[in-house]
Please model this.
Amino acid sequence: MNCPKCASLTVKLNFDGVGVDNCAGCHGIFFDEFDKEQLQKMKGAEAIDFGDPEVGRRFNGVDRIDCPRCGSRMIPMVDFDQPHSWFEHCTLCGGMFFDAGEFKDLKHHTLVDFFKYLLVKERRPPRPREFRAPSAKEKNQTMMKGAMKAGTAPCRLQV
Ligand SMILES: [Zn+2]
Ligand SMILES: [Zn+2]
Model:
């Protein structure tokens, strides 16, 4: 298969039984329908996206492409949960094309959102501040400081 963005040949990659086509030129990734969702949930699957995000950003501008699987025109789409993530989608076969770095970014944000969710769930009301009576030494130090501020040296009681 040829990459819809830079026309280089793609290489089949396999992650735990889920296959994707990774472009040997720009390292963009073509996912068949449902494979992106599946890989997004799989731990470590971001390893399939090893391209240079800088190159990916350059190819992100190329958004009028034909589906490398079925030839129909792909449409630019945005991830529902992550509006910053753009990719190309084929409405006919359900394939998706991600530029280099975009899938990793999506995975990363999915993970961050997951932890945010956990944090929100685990948040508890703040504990009341503990009160501890100052020790005799601390009391004395406070008195010394107060006396020095006022310009009076502490004096011992003379008998
Ligand atoms: Zn390419
Ligand atoms: Zn297609």
In short: Residues 67, 69-70, 72, 90, 92-93, 95 surround zinc ion (ligand 2) (CB under 6 Å). The two ends are 103 Å apart (CA to CA).
